[in-house]
Amino acid sequence: VAGFFVFLFGLNVVQASGYDLKNMDQAYAEVARTVLADIPEGASVAGTGSLVPQLINRHRVCFVRWQPGKLCEWGAPEFVILDMSERRRIRPSQEAKERFVRSLMEDLGYTIVEEREGFIVFHGQERLGPEYRPTLSGRSF
User: What Å distances lie between residue 47 and 19, 56, 107, CA to CA?
Assistant: First the structure.
């Protein structure tokens, strides 16, 4: 009986639209791996959803919240990695993404250090403190 339930669970995961484990874009994965390899081990990082799990071994890491002028619960990290072609169901509009990128550069002083096939890597000074934290209610998309 337990084996049957494991089989049904596996079948459900394989057939679920958000978990297409059979279809993996090798080119996308290789570019993501290359971009992430360029980030120093001790650096704090904010990234978009699909990149963050690969950064989980770092001391300070967070998801990008797409709020202009705000990044992580603890402040602003040294690096920000955006996947502008991210394939999530709920994603910010192109206008919201552009507004967020402008905010990173103008409001927080980040500079673009790498652009590669839809990925943008920003570098700036790590800033800890409440003035750089996102508000709980704000969603810009």
Answer: 21, 11, 18
